[in-house]
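Friendly challenge for the regulars: who can give me the structure tokens for this chain first? No prize, just bragging rights.
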Amino acid sequence: MARPRIKPGEFSYRDYLAWPENERWQLLDGVAYAMAPPSIAHQAVVFELARQLGNALEGKPCRAFTGPVGVRLPRAQEADAFIDTVFEPDLVVVCDPSKLEPRGIRGAPDLVIEVLSPSTASFDLVEKRQRYDRAGVRELWLIDPSSSVLTVYRQHGEHFDAPDIRRAEGEITLTALPEITLYLDFMSALREQPEPL
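First reply, four minutes later:
Bragging rights claimed.
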């Protein structure tokens, strides 16, 4: 698996805010990783799940957001300027309004959904998963649109339980938000699309 491009140097959220808007970077322990442009299949998965979540959350206190939205994951109570881990997940749900700020989200979302891309899959599967676990994300979905495999991590105690790996089909009720069921049969249509030339 390919790894995302790295920007030389050590950075914090202060630097992240100063970068040009047409450049997309994520920070992990002060290292800046480039974000690749998403594929059509990637965007189709994000759009459909965002639509379902938006409808399910209507009139409820939790809110869904699609990327790019900066999610700062402080280690303790450090000021924003010194936070060195900032991700831009594909889709998040936040139920604690105190985590929502004008420039993004500070603290662990309740649900994070990452749609894997070939250039960033290992980064999402290993490094980002570890940081989401450490931060206290209640439920993490990693979806591979090319294989239609869904890997779900659920918080159990202070850490994620063993992953639930399954084909992305049928319906799945969220553990973090048990009143919400997501329907994944739309994924089969993505597998049937012709490969790009």
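The chain has a mean pLDDT of 89. The CA atoms of residues 169 and 188 lie 8 Å apart. Your move, everyone else.
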